[in-house]
Specification:
Blueprint (H helix, E strand, L loop, with lengths): L30 H8 L6 H4 L11 E4 L3 E5 L5 E4 L5 H6 L7 H4 L1 E2 L7 E2 L5 E9 L1 H4 L9 H18 L6 E8 L4 E10 L1 E7 L2 H4 L3 H4 L11 E7 L13 E2 L8 E2 L8 E6 L10 H32 L1 H30 L2 H18 L3 H4 L2 H29 L1 H18 L4 H16 L4 H11 L11 H4 L5 H6 L5 H9 L2 H42 L14 E6 L3 E4 L2 E3 L2 E3 H7 L11 H8 L14 E6 L11 E3 L5 E8 L17 E5 H11 L3 H6 L2 E2 L1 H20 L1
Parallel strand pairs: 12-22
Antiparallel strand pairs: 1-2, 1-6, 2-3, 3-10, 4-9, 5-9, 6-8, 7-8, 9-10, 10-11, 13-14, 13-19, 15-16, 17-18, 18-21, 19-20, 20-21
Helix pairs in contact: 9-10, 9-11, 9-13, 9-16, 13-14, 13-20, 14-15, 14-19, 14-20
C-alpha cells in the first residue's frame, strides 16, 4: 500500500459553486477561496485563517471537546448552543433554583457561575507534518508495524515542536491516514455560565421538532472565558479576569435572506464520506435499526417518568436529550439514504472507479479492494452489531449496568496490579458519585426491564432490591478494605454477579473479535482512499471530519423533502405561537414571551416585514460537533448559530446531497431579542458589537451612483 505524502492534486479541481465539504482553514487559498466568493463571500482566505494576525479562527473555540463556541465580545463573552451547555445549566439547577425551567441570567460578573471540568480550546496554528509522521513507512510493513512507526514519529514531533509553556500540541490523521496535520492549541479552563433561556425557549419543540424543519428553537446559551493576569489560560480563580480575545465576532442586525452566503466555522466530529456501498447498506439496514430499538425502549420509560415528576425531569433532562438525539438522528439517516438511493449511487460510483482502474492499468494494484470490502463486511456485520448493542445497554441507557461495567474494569485492574488500589478506588468513587448525582432507581429499573431483553439476556428484576449500587453510601462501602476485600465485596453483590459474565463475554469474545475484524477494514479503507485519488484524481475530495477546526460554506436555501412540499428557509416567532400548547412539556411558552409577541415589542430585532426571525436553513455541510458553530455572513459577521440538520439530511455523515441536506441555525436576531427584551440582560447587548453591513453596503452603492451622476454632469 502506498501512502500519499504530497497531495498536490487536491487543488486542481475546477472552480464552481459546488457546496459540501469540511475544509481545513489553513488551506483555503485557491479553489476554496474562489468557490466561496462565487457563492457571495467577500472574505479572503487570510481573513479566515492567519497565523501572524488576528483572524476569524481566533474567535472559534472547541467547547468542552464536543461542541463549538464563538467569542462575541472583547471581554471573552462566548456563545454556544443551549444543548451544548445543558449539563452545566443542569448542574446548577435544583428545585429551589430551577434554571432549566426558568432560565438563568447573571446580571454582573460576580453572579457568573464557574463550571468544574469545562474548557474551551482555541487553535493557534495548523501545520502539515505528513512527511515527518509518515517517514519510514513502507509498502511491505504490516498494519501494526505502520501504526507503530506513525505513533513513534508523531510522539517525537510532539516532544520537540516549539510552543509556549501554556500551549499544547497534537497531531491528527486526514484522508484515512494519507495526510497528517499538527495543531498548536490553547485551552482555557475557567469558563463561567453567563446566561441561558428557559428550556421552553432553548429546547422548544424538544423531541418532536428535533432534526426537522420548520424549527422554532432558541438553542443558545452564554458563557465567559476567564484568564490570568497575563491573559493566559488558568484554572479557576477568583482573581482571574475576563479574557481579552485576539478576535471576536461582530453581530449583524441585518440578518439573512435566501441566497445569502453562509460560512459555518467549527469542530465537526466524525463523518465517513468515502465508505463503500456495502458499508452504507450494513449501517442503515442492520446496524442502525437494532440501536434505534434499544434507545426507543429506554426513552419510553424516561419520558414517562419525566412527565410525572419535576425532580426526575431535572435529574434526567441531560441524559434524555443525549439518548433521544442519536435515536432520532439514526432514523432520519436511514430515511435520507433510502430517499436519495445513496447505496445504488455509491455502487454506480464504484463502477466508475473500477472502470478507471482498467483504463489506467491499476487493476493489479487496486482491483482487489471492492471485492475484499464485500467479504470483510459480511464477516464483520454480526459482531459490529453485537458490540454496539452492548455499548447501548451498558454504557448509554442503563446506569446500574454502567456502574457494574466500571466496577468490572476496576476488578481487572486490581488483579493485574493491587498497588493501584487508591487510584482505582478514587476512579470508581468519582464514577459512582457522578451517576448518583442524577439517579432515580425507579427510572433505571424500568429502563433495565425494557432494554436488556433486546440484548438477548435474561432479566432479573430482583437485583435492584439486592444490590448496593443503587444507594451511593452502600456502593462506596463496597470499596472499603484492601484489594482482595474490594474484589470480594464486588463479587458478592447481586447486580455485579448478574452483570459480570455478560461483561466478561464482551471483553473476552465480542470486543476481541470486533478489533480483529475491524482492523483489516480500516487498513483497506486507507488503501481505498489512496486508490480513489490515484484512479480518479479530478474528483472532489475533502477530508472526513475528525473534531478538528473546519470551514464549510454554502447559502441560505429552502428545500423540498418530498413531493409537493417545500420549506421556506426562515421560520418566525409567529410559528412559536402557532405551535404553543399550554402546559405541554415540548410546546409550552413562557408568559413573558407571549406578552412580548402580543405587544409586538420586538425592539431592533424584527426584520423588514416587522417579524422576528427564529431559525433559518443553509446548505452548509455539518455534523455533530458543529453544534454551537457560528454562521458567518459574507462580511465576517455573526448572523446565526448552527444547532441541527434536517431529518433526511442527517445522512450527510455518509452521503452529502446538496438537494436535501440542510443545516439549521438560530437567527442571531432571535438570540438578541431573548437576551434583551425577554431576559432584560441589556448589559450583555451593550458588550457586543452590533453592525448593519447590508445597510452600509446600500449606502455605499447609492454614494457611488451619485458620484457617477456628478461626473457625467
Amino acid at each position: 500500500m502506498r501512502f500519499l505524502k504530497i497531495l498536490f492534486f487536491f487543488v486542481v479541481f475546477q472552480v464552481s459553486a459546488q457546496q459540501g465539504g469540511m475544509w481545513i482553514p489553513s488551506l483555503l487559498e485557491g479553489m476554496n477561496e474562489d468557490e466561496m466568493q462565487s457563492l457571495g463571500s467577500k472574505l479572503t482566505a487570510q481573513d479566515i485563517y492567519d497565523v501572524n494576525n488576528s483572524s476569524l479562527k481566533d474567535a472559534i473555540g472547541h467547547f468542552n471537546g464536543g461542541c463549538t463556541s464563538e467569542v462575541i465580545s472583547d471581554q471573552g463573552l462566548v456563545l454556544t448552543n443551549h444543548h451544548c451547555g445543558f449539563s452545566q445549566i443542569q448542574s446548577h439547577s435544583s428545585l429551589e433554583n430551577d434554571y432549566l425551567k426558568d432560565g438563568f441570567w447573571a446580571m454582573n460578573l460576580e453572579d457568573e457561575l464557574p463550571n468544574e471540568g469545562l474548557f474551551i480550546e482555541f487553535i493557534v496554528s495548523i501545520h502539515d507534518v505528513s512527511d515527518k509522521v509518515l517517514k519510514g513507512i513502507t509498502a511491505d510493513m504490516t498494519e501494526k508495524e505502520k501504526q507503530s512507526q506513525i505513533s513513534k514519529n508523531s510522539n517525537a514531533l510532539l516532544e520537540t515542536w516549539p510552543k509556549e509553556s501554556w500551549q499544547d500540541v497534537k497531531t491528527k490523521a486526514f484522508y484515512k491516514g494519507n495526510q497528517y496535520f499538527l495543531f498548536v492549541t490553547e485551552r482555557f479552563e475557567d469558563i463561567r455560565l453567563v446566561g441561558a433561556p428557559p428550556t421552553s425557549i432553548g429546547k422548544f419543540g424538544s423531541d418532536t421538532d428535533n432534526w426537522v424543519f420548520p424549527r422554532h428553537t432558541g438553542d443558545f446559551s452564554m458563557f465567559r472565558i476567564y484568564a490570568d493576569a497575563n491573559n493566559r489560560p488558568a484554572k479557576y480563580s477568583k482573581d482571574n479576569k475576563p479574557y481579552q480575545p485576539k478576535h471576536y465576532l461582530p453581530i449583524s442586525l441585518d440578518g439573512i435572506e435566501e441566497g445569502d452566503f453562509t460560512m459555518v466555522f467549527g469542530f465537526p466530529g466524525t463523518t465517513n464520506e468515502y465508505l463503500p456501498a456495502v458499508a452504507i447498506e450494513h449501517i442503515t439496514k442492520a446496524y442502525n435499526p437494532t440501536n434505534i430499538a434499544i434507545r426507543e425502549a429506554a426513552l419510553k420509560v424516561i419520558d414517562q417518568k419525566m412527565k410525572e415528576s419535576d425532580a426526575v425531569r431535572i435529574k434526567y433532562a441531560s441524559k434524555q436529550a443525549r439518548i433521544a438525539n442519536a435515536w432520532k438522528k439514526w432514523i432520519g439517516e436511514n430515511l435520507g439514504i433510502s430517499k436519495t438511493n445513496a447505496v445504488e449511487k455509491r455502487r454506480a460510483f464504484e463502477a466508475t472507479f473500477s472502470k478507471a482502474l482498467k483504463e489506467k492499468n491499476l487493476e493489479a494494484k487496486y482491483g482487489h479492494i471492492l471485492p475484499e470490502f464485500d467479504k470483510l463486511y459480511k464477516d464483520f456485520a454480526p459482531i459490529n452489531i453485537k458490540r454496539r448493542n452492548f455499548i447501548e445497554v451498558f454504557l448509554t441507557t442503563n446506569e446500574l449496568m454502567q456502574m457494574t461495567f466500571r466496577a468490572y474494569q476496576i476488578e481487572q485492574a486490581l488483579k493485574d496490579n493491587p498497588a493501584i488500589l487508591d487510584r482505582a478506588k478514587a476512579s470508581l468513587t468519582g464514577t459512582l458519585k457522578g451517576i448518583h448525582k442524577n439517579y432515580d432507581v425507579g427510572v433505571d429499573k424500568g429502563v433495565y426491564l425494557n432494554v436488556m431483553p433486546l440484548y438477548g439476556k435474561p432479566v432479573d428484576a430482583s437485583i435492584y432490591d439486592k444490590t448496593a449500587f443503587t444507594d451511593l453510601d452502600a456502593a462506596l462501602k463496597l470499596l472499603e478494605g484492601d484489594a482482595e476485600t474490594v474484589i470480594k465485596n464486588l463479587n458478592e453483590d447481586a447486580a455485579y454477579a448478574y452483570a459480570k459474565p455478560i461483561i466478561s463475554e464482551f471483553y473476552d469474545t465480542i470486543n476481541v473479535a470486533y478489533e480483529a475484524k475491524n482492523g483489516p477494514i480500516n487498513a483497506l479503507q486507507t488503501e481505498y482512499m489512496t486508490a480513489l485519488m490515484e484512479a480518479l484524481p479530478n474528483e472532489r475530495y475533502f477530508p472526513d471530519a475528525n473534531s478538528t477546526l473546519r470551514v464549510t460554506y454554502g447559502q441560505v436555501r429552502g428545500y423540498s423533502p418530498r413531493d409537493a412540499v417545500y420549506y421556506n428557509p426562515v421560520s418566525y416567532l409567529d410559528g412559536v405561537m402557532e405551535k404553543y400548547v399550554p402546559g405541554d412539556y415540548e410546546f409550552d411558552v413562557p408568559q413573558k414571551l407571549i406578552d412580548l409577541y402580543e405587544a409586538k415589542d420586538y425592539g431592533q430585532y424584527a426584520d423588514s416585514n416587522g417579524k422576528v426571525p427564529v431559525c433559518f436553513l443553509g446548505t452548509n455541510h455539518t455534523t455533530g460537533g458543529n453544534s454551537g458553530s457560528p454562521a458567518i455572513d459574507a462580511e465576517g459577521n455573526l448572523v446565526g448559530l448552527n444547532f441541527d440538520r434536517v431529518w433526511e439530511g442527517t445522512m450527510s455523515d455518509m452521503n452529502y446531497d446538496p438537494e436535501i441536506c440542510r443545516n439549521i441555525m438560530v437567527d442571531l436576531r432571535y438570540v438578541l431579542f431573548i437576551v434583551d427584551k425577554y431576559a432584560g440582560a441589556t448589559h450583555l447587548i451593550d458588550e457586543m458589537t452590533l453592525v448593519h453591513p447590508k445597510k452600509e453596503e446600500t449606502k455605499s452603492k447609492k454614494k457611488k451612483k451619485k458620484n457617477k451622476r456628478k461626473k457625467r454632469s
